[in-house]
Amino acid sequence: MKETWRWFGPEDPVPLRYASQAGATGIVSALHHLYRGEVWPVEEVLKRRDQIAAAGMDWSVVESIPMPTSIKLRTGPFRSNIDTWIDSMAAIAKAGVKILCYNFMPVVDWVRTDIAFRLPSTGYAVRFDALDFAAYDLFILQRRGAEDGLSQERIAAARRRFESMTPEFIERLERTLIAGLSASESSYDRESMRAAIAQFDGVTAEDLRGNLLSFLQDVGPVAQELGIRLAIHPDDPPWPLYGLPRIVSTAEDLRRILDGYNSPVNGLTFCAGSLGSRADNDLVAMAREFGPRIHFLHLRQVRREDDGSFYESEHLSGSSDMLGLIRTMLEEECRRARNGQLDWEIPMRPDHGHLLGDDIGKPGNAGYSFVGRLKGLAELRGAIRGLQFALPELLPAER
Ligand code: DNO
Questions:
Q1: pLDDT digit string, tens, across residues 135-179
Q2: Ligand 1 contact via 350 beta carbon (within 6 Å)
Q3: Is the CB of 235 under 6 A from ligand 1?
Q4: Cβ of 275: how many Cβ atoms within 10 Å?
Q5: Whose CA is nearest to atom 7 of ligand 1?
Q6: Domains of the chain by range and CATH?
Q7: What pTM did the predictor assign?
Q8: Is 103 close to ligand 1, i.e. is its CB under 6 Å away?
């Protein structure tokens, strides 16, 4: 596996050289200063490539070219927005980047309720508390229809939770929920959030899936010509939030997307943390089934709780079978290498890390600490080497 590291560009408090010190050989990046739907000029993209190359690494994956709402809804200026998306894709192809991660989550990208959840070790993790989320949706955002699908007990428990919240807690919760985590595309206040959600009134999961498949029909052939592989990121968490449809959550969802546009160009970012937040997602079985279409791996663990809450646990210990997943993906690499596929090596990144040691109190992007990710990457590397030592058949032939 190619060890990669997400870098948010020159503004990232974790500099590029730290990624190299952590042992990464590839960088995952995007032009975060051009994230409002504008085209990425070739010069800017080449500049980013050169910065990464100067630090001795290569730009392995673009994560992500932002996806405007018009494309998700297929309304308004969606045609010109798709053209812009394609132009940006052509620019990254010029820079030699071959894998493009993107997502199709309406309104919100990844969602957490707490970015400083204290662990018994005294480090901090990010967490999704299902009750805090329900309390926010029902009693703070007061979204129309927020009670739909919730049991009376859940609503009563959410009310009790809400009543126990201090104004400071509410402010922090709201900032974490809607004002934008580091990797997300938008930030809202209460009113703009309600308006953004309203744009999806009446849009079903079927509609959204149809729009995704139409988008793939539009961009797929160009991606193929450019030699780019598209890698859709799963919903995080993998269930509907704020009454909005989410369509990249389960094995059946992935099947429908991959079959709906059946080409190697249409592949996955297999995010173990996102998919693993649902107990009914069997990661090893999914990795086996979708292996040939997995273009990029996010290796991260969660510890699931009974009420739908979860927190990001240590990379090797949590609710999912991380070693089984790694083993399955090493087998997939070997299969590719045996078939003579030049791109047999799958880029992975330690997706998120805890706040540990010097990370604590430093400015940074939630989930993207230095020491925490360094530890995550080191543990994952150890697991990979250990598996390959014990089972030499997991070493691709070329090595
Ligand atoms: C969170 C990330 C996601 C991801 C996007 C990809 O840290 O894994 O925000 O970058 O969804 O488009």
A1: 999 999 999 999 999 999 999 999 999 999 999 999 999 999 998
A2: no
A3: no
A4: 28
A5: 183
A6: 2-111+201-394 (3.20.20.150), 129-196 (no CATH)
A7: 0.97
A8: yes
